[in-house]
Amino acid sequence: MKVKNWMVREVITIGPGATVREAVDLMHRHSIRHLPVVDGAELLGLVTESNLRPYLFAAGRKEPRVSEVMIMNPITVDPNASVDSAARLIHQYKIGGLPVLEKRRLVGILTITDILAAFIELFGILQESSRVDLVLADREGALDEALKIIREAGGRVISIGMEVQSSRRKVHYIRVEKTDLAPIVEQLESHGHRVVSVLD
Questions:
Q1: Which pLDDT tens digit goes with each residue over 177-186?
Q2: Does the N-terminal or the C-terminal CB of the chain have fewer CB atoms within 10 Å?
Q3: Start and end of every CBS domain (predicted)?
């Protein structure tokens, strides 16, 4: 999944000479929390609702311009980067969104909401489905074998996830299109795989 397929392309932006109040009003009007500061299509910085808030109530001093309070050199991402790498950046730097730059030109913005939508689609979470959680038999090719068993028992796999609970215990979460799980569970266990739980 590429960033360019999930980013917002029609980005609301602001110029460096605008006031903090103008920036906040623009955010509220468009229900957004990140506002790239641009000169033409070139990104100069970024303002967020949280970093502007202290300046709204600073009594007794002139309201600053966006250029004075913006985040300089914000973390950005390339449109051809993977959504996974963008998610890691957001997690690592504890930020809510990433301007998307192509040769220094702002071409979009990717927020936590966009990343969540991408992962929801990837994992088929909103699709009517069932899930089998299992610990695979300890042998080479066990995952391929389990997937083959599921298919042969009438299951259509939507997504696969894994949680490592210890060095020896890995639980695989296999989401399938809504189906009767009983024959799938029976076949998996007869081949030595341990079904931990099912969500039907």
A1: 888 999 999 9
A2: C
A3: 7-63, 70-128
